[in-house]
Amino acid sequence: MLDSKRKRSIIKDTSGNALMMMAAAVLPLTAMIGGGLDMGIAYTARAKLQNACDAGVLAGRQAMQGNIWSTDAQAEAQKFFDFNYPAGLHGATNLAFAVRQNPTDGAELLATASAEIPTVIMRVFQIDSLDIAVDCNAKKETGHNDIMVVLDVTGSMLNAPSVDSAGTSKIGRLRVGTLGLYRGLDDSDDETITRFGILPYSHTVNVGGLLESDWVLDNQVYENRLVFVNGVFQPGRTGCGGLGPNCEVRRSDLVVPATKSGFATNRSFARNLPDLLASVNGYTGSVMRSVLPSSGSTTNALSRFQNGGFACIEERPSVGSSGETYDSISNDDIDTVPTNGGEPELQFGRYDPSWINSPYSVLDCPNSATMMQEYASLGAFQSQIATSTARVGGSTFHDIGMLWAVRLMSRTGMFADQNPETIDGAPVTQHIVYMTDGILFPNPDVYSAYGTANVKRRVEGSGSHYDRHLSRFEDACNLARARGITVWVIALDVTATDDIRPCASSDTHFLTSDGTDLEEVFETIGRRIGKLRLTK
């Protein structure tokens, strides 16, 4: 039996207490640390699940045609969710993603996602998993779209694409393919207004019907290159190749007054035909008559301009330049408006191969461009595309196509009143969809919007003739993007794309097509243009 002294000694002895206290704290500490570790994994998993939910619901909304919720759109939503949260990530089980259309607002999708995340430490305490869940919604943003569709209608578009050389021509595929753009932007079930402008281009553009009379030259100078052998005029020849040593090329600039009464409403160029018979630079009217279209009929030539919509233009000189030269493209070149007929340096010329000794026909003038307008149906849009692309031919001058696309969309230039920043208080976004089947080819023998380079070099700058036109194309692209216009570029059946790829607003705005998938490519652009936003 312990005496009292021994008892007091034992009571006062504290050795070993720390071990006992630590043993008592092990379970709470394990729960605290383990819980923090498991909760950290769960929080990471939840953030990833939220991102996947957002991606899925946005992809589903973008895949919808108008406000039609389909199994294809649902599959697209699931695909993007699965890509962003793969099965087995974080050891998740019972992974679920559900998306549906808002029953009270067809423009909105509602989605939820959930999973169970296994624990590592907490299972010691019989907690085997943690439940996580998120929700997300996406809706088409209220806003409107103006889209300028710029279409290459040069001669190569008459060929079939290389992937199917015996099949439908590229121009035929284009007329069907562009319908995908309309489908992708179908906004019939919401308040969005989408307007389309259409601009076909080759080595010139047909915009004469959109210009005021005072914006067009009264007296047009046509550069002529007439070929003579032993003093005898050679119709249809532009050079002396194969004609022998007695061949000579003579310059003969012809000044042709314009009869512009009713020009803006008739959308046609008219000419003062009596001047055709006058002596010009020593060559008689009969000589000049011989270089008209093959019919030789001045009446037929005039009729074709008045009734056929042949209102292509010769480009005006660069604003501020001396003479008739074309330098880099500036904002002044886009926006400066001729205020009256007394500023010929700011006016545009009348493109007319029938006044010059050119191997190219007036038929190489594309069909008329159209300003922004709504199309009530797919059929109406299809009809206009067919009309706009009815004439195919000529050489590939990307710079004239892009220059006029920016001019027609400018909110501070000649057509400012037709390009509002808002409609009914909602913003209008601007897009250029530029489609071509070839690399830049500014043929110097072609009578283009810049004249004929091999007759009189007008386009100035450093490098080759190609380099100078490429520089102007780059200028126009840069100005479009600087004005907030989103530029989409489609390369059709062409692998050399170094000249056109940089024009697109980004790599995601540059698309390619071999011809067989052209409609899908256009539809992809339409869906991407339809602006979406997360609502939760």
TrEMBL record:
A Pfam entry, by short name: Tad
TM annotation in the entry: 21-43
Source species taxonomy: Bacteria, Pseudomonadati, Pseudomonadota, Alphaproteobacteria, Sphingomonadales
Biased composition, class Polar residues, residue ranges: 319-329
InterPro entries reported for this sequence: Tad_N (IPR028087), vWFA_dom_sf (IPR036465)
Start and end residues of each Putative Flp pilus-assembly TadG-like N-terminal domain: 16-60
Keyword terms: Membrane, Transmembrane, Transmembrane helix
Species per Swiss-Prot/TrEMBL record: Parapontixanthobacter aurantiacus
Disordered: annotated segments: 318-337
Protein name as annotated: Putative Flp pilus-assembly TadG-like N-terminal domain-containing protein
SUPFAM superfamilies named among the record's database cross-references: vWA-like
UniProt keyword Membrane present: yes
